[in-house]
Amino acid sequence: MTSSSPAAPRGRERxxxxxxxxxxxxxxxxxxxxxxxxxxxxxxxxxxxxxxGIALSNNDGNFLTTFEWMPDAPKPVFxxxxxxxxxxxxxxxxxxxxxxxxIGIALFISHYAPRRIAQPxxxxxxxxxxxPSIVYGLWGxxxxxxHMDGLTSWLNQYLGWTYLxxxxxxxxxxxxxxxGILLAIMILPIITAVSREVFRQVPRMHEEAALALxxxxxxxxRTAVLxxxxxxxxxxxxxxxxRALGETIxxxxxxxxxxxxxxxxxxxxxxxxxxxxxxxxxxxxNNGRDALMASxxxxxxxxxxxxxxxxxxxxxxxxxxxxxx
Amino acid sequence: MTTVTTVPEDARPQIGQKLTANRLPKWTPPxxxxxxxxxxxxxxxxxxxxxxLQWGLISALLFLLGSYLLSAQVEGRRQAKDRFATxxxxxxxxxxVVPLAxxxxxxxxxxxGVVNGNFLSHSMKGVIQSGPGGxxxxxxxxxxxxxxxxxxxxxxxxxxxxxxxxxxxxxRLAKTVTFFVDVMTGVPSIVAGLFILSLWNLALGFxxxxxxxxxALAILMIPVVVxxxxxxxxxxxxELREASYALGVPKWKTILRIVLPTAIGGITTGVMxxxxxxxxxxxxxxxxxxGADYINSNPFDGPQQxxxxxxxxQYSVVNNDFGYARAWGAALVLIAFVMGxxxxxxxxxxxxxxxxxx
Lengths: 325, 358
What we know:
heterodimer; A: mainly alpha; two-stranded antiparallel sheet; 10 helices; 1% strand; disordered N terminus; B: 13 helices
């Protein structure tokens, strides 16, 4: 790009104009891609809402409180009560297990592990995230479920009085509790990855100041690392929650679904939004398909809110960009 | 952190106060760990507990309790709490390793006997589902085509969006796009599938095909590509751009010739990680591709098969030992493919990562 010849003012002018045109085209192309993204998001909401409207106008039951899912009956009756309950309960179990463990792993990588272990181990945790969910499902159904028998009966025996762990039906533990544990394993990597990044960004001075004042390592973490990382931990957990709410195929493989809403989380049964869609889709008729879209829309809105909230919390501290895991 | 052997009290009668606190020797944690594992296994065996998971849990609890009490006795409460926290963190680490190890080992164990040349080169056409035989060739072909098409659609869009956000993005539009890219990362895959179904199949009237599956996969892939590309573009030193502008190179050419080539290693990594992620997606493919038993090498016409969906079908539809065996074989191939992509991608990232300005 050397336009050294002064004898060609016209050529330079044209070149300047060309580059302006090129710039404009390229910029609009780039901006168009960005806008396309927004259009896709709007279209997802729009199209699902359109099909949901069709389904809901045919519904004889109450969409929010009905337990059954029979949209293809002559008098269609379907509702999301069981699905919403199952989705939330299984996601909560997953969070209760995964968040503390993930914080522990993140601390291990950022503050406890010898450097030689920390880096490979961080890779290992990232690899966990790469395992396809169908493989988790297969492992869950054929390995985890048989191995959950002992724990299930133990919980039932000693904690049965809590109602929650009271097992009233027999059969393999294809229940919300097992699903929760499987989901916990699946969302561990993302919570770990984000918290790890946040813990790494704790100002070195804060940590050294705490240690200089005579704090033990744990006191240093409690007084310097955790307060600094709290917003990061919260948003990491919410990203994990978003994953857990939307997980489809692993849940569909492990859970033996029915339309019973029960707080006995060790009883096989229940359902989740995504699992219900995956399972009912194959034999759904026209109205059934639209009904599934309606439940999909609810799931979409819930995950949108959860993820949006997580991002807003994280955006307050701009530097936490490790969220693309 | 060295072992301090306390001087006997009577050796220094003048000094009333010790200057160093009591410390447990360095070998205490491993010894306590071994002891608690032994006791845990003992209790487990004595109580006749079937699951070895429970043995492990009992040992872990014993370890936590043991090291806390010991340390509280010798070193005081504060040190004991510190040791307790350290133990908890280590237990969390082990808890994370157990499922990964179990998953990998179990998949390899179950799948290794199934995968052979015949399995990789045959479809399920004419194979009795409930019997032995058959293979995954059609699924492999379908997955490669669908993922390839999805990448062809998602990579340019993702790249351009990232360029917009980093190089041009100012003002409200850029902020909105950034926010929605983040939110889009969390869109459940099944919702993407439902959306393409309602748009492509119901509103526009197209039929089930590999291509409609890849449309849904593209939606899942775009935000991942945008995020990783964005990170990489931000790492390109500003001096390079300024040098280029100073030579009179227009902005678009600077981006194409200077910025993107500098970051190409990281961008490739990001795209490969995104490919790895969508390769394992089952839910959208299940709704849109429809799962054929035979080889269909045209992704634009008629049902195809894909690896994740093949596993799902072999598990839930066939649902006997022959089906499970085929499912494990396919799972092994899928995991090997995805992990391989991951490792290669990270290798490229290390090899060609842009160095920060110096």
